[in-house]
Amino acid sequence: MAMIRLTMAQALVAAMAAQRTVIDGQVQPLFAGVWAIFGHGNVAGLGEALYAARDRLPTLRAHNEQAMAHAAIAFAKASRRRRMMAVTSSIGPGATNMVTAAAVAHVNRLPVLLLPGDVFAGRRPDPVLQQIEDFGDGTVSANDCFRPVSRYFDRITRPEQIVPAFERAMQVLTDAAECGPVTLALCQDVQTEAFEYPDWFFAERVWQPRRARADETQLAQAVALLKAAKRPLVVAGGGVLYSEAEGDLAVFCTAHGLPVAETQAGKSALPHDHPLNLGAIGVTGTGAANDAARHADLLLAIGTRLQDFTTGSRSLFADPACRIVGLNTQTFDAGKHRAQPLVGDAKVVLAELGASLQGWAAPAIWTQQARTGRTAWLETAARYTAAGSEILPSDAQVIGAVQRRSLPSDVVLCAAGGLPGELHKLWQPGAPGGYHMEYGYSCMGYEIAGGLGVKLADPAREVVVMVGDGSYLMMNSEIATSVMLGAKLIIVVLDNRGFACINRLQNATGGASFNNLLRDARHEMLPEIDFVAHAAAMGAIAHKVASITDLEAAFDEARRHDRTSVVVIDTDPLRSTDAGGHWWDVAVPEVSGRAEVEAARRSYVEALGRRNY
């Protein structure tokens, strides 16, 4: 065994550059690159190592640490978790800026390798600039914030530790069940220290997805439950897309007459025009999907966490006898809500289920009811998305305009506020992956950085970022990065002058409009924010439009541009799609001086009685 003398940082970079994956029969680098903002905690060690390897492992510069981590996460999601990126920052605020993004990756089960710089392992210069000091624990640093939001966390305090740490990191990053963020906190002095590393650490390694088959007993139990069901419904989650099982899902549901409802992460798993696709489920669901969910006596939940927006805070599945079969790679998710677990890969297990169910189909009346419900919902949705004569259009009308001017290959991306609910109900994706929503963590500020990550993952597709003014103001700096990298985005900014979604929720729970819309926040003067000038200052082509008709024309023009384009339109902060949807558990105060809150509390208590427990 040959030994190679390198610094710890050089060894880490060389090992990362050696990792491979296979996509469509082609061997590709597993790590597409490293996002980096350098500081005193990583520039001399990891920065020097990245410079030497820049032709094998590209380094990308961003403008905000949280944003560059969002871009890396979106890249991994758009790549179906088959490729990923790493992110490095200095110690201090650079590191803690990434904690929010780590939570996004953790909730959404997405791989990202976080490499924050850390304090000196040798401690001679303690306290170093930006060091957090714990009065009772000398081993603590700011990077300990990453522990609860990492699937695997390690602090590298000796150069040889990188070997087992990186091996473990790769196992987590590439495993269908454990997948999520990994944090390797790199003590800044250790980054520069040399060690004799074994040459096998730098050998090319090809990672391919582990496709676990179902346990025979679990499979038999699931088959029995399905055959006994009179009103079975499939709930498609993000795991369908991560498993590349969308084609298998279509075949399975067609063969057995099973209607399908989609979570936020699962939307686009079944073609929008499939006659059994009922669309979105849950709090932001369609009338068709939620009606089917209320009457279903069996749910086949595929690749979903079954969080409260999907289950209507455990009140949507109204049949007391309703059973759940949880098809998931992760046992933690497969058994939620007292489900019959069916642990395995979606693509493989759907084939196994199909073979065992050969000749069986759901009752024809149930399948036909689903088709009828779908048709009725599409007619309803069309009314909300049609252009109107109102001075200020609704979010739904803006969505309708973008939909009409989009191509089937386009990707629409969003993250937080009222838009995710409207898009979940109303958007009609043209192809798998054409709907990219970060709604597990509902992270404001993800949108533009996430759009950049998607564009880097799939440059041939037009990426359309839809974002409200509130989220735009939280994080917009990666507009400049997209221009710098030639990664063109079309960004549609819906300006309703505040946090309109939460204002509506505030009102719905009896509260007065307060501190959400700009006009209802404490102010001496209301700001007139010129989003066009702001976006143009970062290098984008920007326009403001006054109507839905103008928006459609501006969108067509943006498609013809060769760099990031921003289109701004004023929208109504109060109107939303009141068709579809379902109750969501948002606690209302038991005591209030407002009659509106007391009335909302009575309604809330009544709704609590409709939960499953």
Automatic annotation (TrEMBL):
Gene Ontology CC terms: acetolactate synthase complex
GO biological process: inositol catabolic process; isoleucine biosynthetic process; L-valine biosynthetic process
Keyword Repeat: no
Keywords, sorted A to Z: Hydrolase, Signal, Thiamine pyrophosphate
Domain of life according to the entry: Bacteria
Keyword Secreted assigned: no
Residue span, Thiamine pyrophosphate enzyme N-terminal TPP-binding domain: 45-131
Known EC number: 3.7.1.22
Thiamine pyrophosphate enzyme TPP-binding domain residues: 417-569
Pfam families in the cross-refs: TPP_enzyme_C, TPP_enzyme_M, TPP_enzyme_N
Thiamine pyrophosphate enzyme central domain boundaries: 219-353
Family: Belongs to the TPP enzyme family.
NCBIfam families, per database record: myo_inos_iolD
Protein name: 3D-(3,5/4)-trihydroxycyclohexane-1,2-dione acylhydrolase (Decyclizing)
Species of the source: Bradyrhizobium hipponense
